[in-house]
């Protein structure tokens, strides 16, 4: 027999038993974003490779080694999107959404990066991304962090830590990079091979190393925070004051750098210690340079993306996951007439109780076999509709999870009683 074909390494199926938690996560985030006036935008999953090279930058991990790139049949080089910001800016420019106006946008969907698969790190993963364009002040940076804070609250997630830093402007960073490279050269013996390579290409990224042997050399490095201009410092201080006023706790982490060149000023991450090395569940910051870099007029922008697999992993441990709704009722029908009438009864219940989750038995079968299916469906109650019930204008309601005895209920009272049971 031929071997079954399996899913691609690092790309996971999300099964029906898992999707209620995904829906809860996505619905909660969508609801918060719409309450802050953010509109959804949907972009293609594939873009020209050039877009990512120009936006993310050639010397980043993503472009150097993580992209799924292939030639289209007409010879164009295409790439499965590794993140959403580039496509969002591309779409914004293409449709004239960015020039001289304010936009608050969000998107969701799969992203693709060829990384080593492990817990919290996949080759197809999902993000919800949020971007605002046209606002340069720290008020919108604050707004986005407040959004994330509210999302965690409404998801029932606690124990997440907000880490905050500023990367200054491109000019401030250029001056700082000279200092940093000088410093690392003076202690070159302590750098690993990866970092020595980055000394030329992307020295800031060395600060982000995960190599514990480099902890000392990194912690002694000069910080950008100490070399900021007045405007960048004021931007950062205003953001911090806003967070203080809102009662959002944060930790300033001068080692927090984003790999991408287009970032400016604010960067932030929400991290947890509960997911091992893959502890960042949300990352974002200001990227005032990107729109121009992609051919638009200079446009300030700030955004973040959250990693849904990591948030799901956190939610799976919590109480919310246990309270998620499944099926309410499974309708068991015995006899030909009851079968016919039962379908009508189910439709009337669906009319009266719009949120009701009701499965009607299909495929006939005896009492025992229908009850087996009812059990397997995970429904909380079986509704029993047989000849006796039909004759008496009644329906039986039997708890399927050990919550008491079967009761007989008048048809006229059925909807009210079900509403009470499933509230
Ligand atoms: P990391 O340092 O973990 O590789 P990153 O800096 O590459 O993260 P971003 O590009 O900022 O990640 O993406 C935002 C978020 O998307 C991350 O904080 C994380 O939650 C999630 N994420 C990124 N890469 C993956 C992946 N391969 N699998 C699952 N989630 C991911
Ligand atoms: Mg990464």
UniProtKB/TrEMBL annotation:
Q: Which InterPro entries match?
A: aa-tRNA-synth_II (IPR006195), aa-tRNA-synth_II/BPL/LPL (IPR045864), Anticodon-bd (IPR004154), Anticodon-bd_dom_sf (IPR036621), His-tRNA-ligase (IPR015807), HisRS-like_core (IPR041715), HisRS/HisZ (IPR004516), HisRS_anticodon (IPR033656)
Its recorded reaction(s) are: tRNA(His) + L-histidine + ATP = L-histidyl-tRNA(His) + AMP + diphosphate + H(+)
EC number of the protein:
6.1.1.21
Q: Name one Pfam family in it.
A: HGTP_anticodon
Matching Gene3D superfamilies, A to Z? Answer: Anticodon-binding domain, Bira Bifunctional Protein, Domain 2
Key words, A-Z: Aminoacyl-tRNA synthetase, ATP-binding, Cytoplasm, Ligase, Nucleotide-binding, Protein biosynthesis
Its chief place of residence is cytoplasm
Keyword Iron annotated: no
A GO-annotated cellular component: cytoplasm
The EC class name is: ligase
Q: Which residues form the Aminoacyl-transfer RNA synthetases class-II family profile domain?
A: 1-325
Task: Tell me yes or no: is Heme among this UniProt entry's keywords.
Answer: no
The UniProt annotation places L-histidine binding at 83-85, 113, 127, 131, 258, 262-263
* GO BP, sorted A to Z: histidyl-tRNA aminoacylation
Q: Where in the cell is it found?
A: Cytoplasm
Write out the GO MF terms: ATP binding; histidine-tRNA ligase activity
Q: Which NCBIfam families match?
A: hisS
What subunit structure does UniProt give? Homodimer.
Q: Which family does it belong to?
A: Belongs to the class-II aminoacyl-tRNA synthetase family.
How is this protein named in the record? Answer: Histidine--tRNA ligase
**Gene that encodes the chain:** hisS
């Amino acid at each position: 027999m031929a071997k079954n074909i399996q899913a691609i390494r690092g790309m996971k199926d999300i099964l029906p038993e898992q999707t209620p938690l995904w829906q809860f996560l996505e619905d909660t985030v969508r609801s918060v974003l719409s309450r802050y006036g953010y509109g959804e935008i949907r972009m293609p999953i594939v873009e020209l490779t050039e877009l990512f090279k120009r936006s993310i930058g050639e010397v980043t991990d993503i472009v150097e080694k993580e992209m799924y790139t292939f030639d289209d049949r007409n010879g164009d080089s295409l790439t499965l999107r590794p993140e959403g910001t580039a496509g969002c800016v591309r779409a914004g420019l293409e449709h004239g959404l960015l020039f001289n106006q304010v936009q608050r946008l969000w998107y969701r969907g799969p992203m693709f990066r060829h990384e080593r698969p492990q817990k919290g790190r996949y080759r197809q993963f999902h993000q919800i991304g949020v971007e605002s364009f046209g606002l340069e002040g720290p008020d919108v940076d604050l707004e986005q962090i407040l959004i994330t804070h509210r999302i965690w609250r409404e998801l029932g997630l606690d124990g997440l830590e907000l880490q905050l830093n500023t990367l200054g402007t491109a000019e401030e960073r250029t001056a700082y990079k000279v200092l940093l490279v000088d410093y690392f050269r003076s202690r070159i013996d302590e750098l690993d091979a990866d970092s020595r390579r980055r000394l030329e290409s992307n020295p800031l990224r060395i600060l982000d190393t995960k190599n514990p042997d480099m902890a000392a050399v990194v912690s002694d490095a000069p910080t950008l925070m100490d070399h900021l201009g007045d405007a960048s410092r004021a931007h950062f201080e205003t953001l911090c004051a806003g967070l203080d006023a809102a009662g959002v706790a944060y930790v300033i982490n001068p080692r927090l750098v984003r790999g991408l060149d287009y970032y400016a000023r604010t960067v932030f991450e929400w991290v947890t210690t509960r997911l091992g090395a893959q502890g960042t569940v949300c990352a974002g910051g200001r990227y005032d340079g990107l729109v121009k870099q992609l051919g638009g007029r200079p446009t300030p922008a700030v955004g973040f993306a959250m990693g849904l697999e990591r948030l799901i992993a956190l939610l799976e441990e919590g109480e919310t996951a246990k309270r998620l709704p499944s099926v309410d009722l499974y309708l068991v029908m015995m006899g030909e007439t009851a079968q016919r009438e039962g379908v009508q009864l189910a439709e009337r219940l669906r009319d009266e109780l719009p949120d009701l989750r009701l499965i009607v038995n299909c495929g006939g079968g005896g009492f025992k076999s229908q009850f087996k299916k009812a059990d397997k469906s995970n429904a909380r109650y079986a509704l029993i509709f047989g000849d006796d019930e039909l004759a008496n204008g009644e329906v039986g309601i039997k708890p399927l999870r050990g919550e008491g005895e079967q009761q007989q209920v008048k048809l006229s009272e059925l909807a009210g009683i079900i509403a009470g049971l499933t509230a």
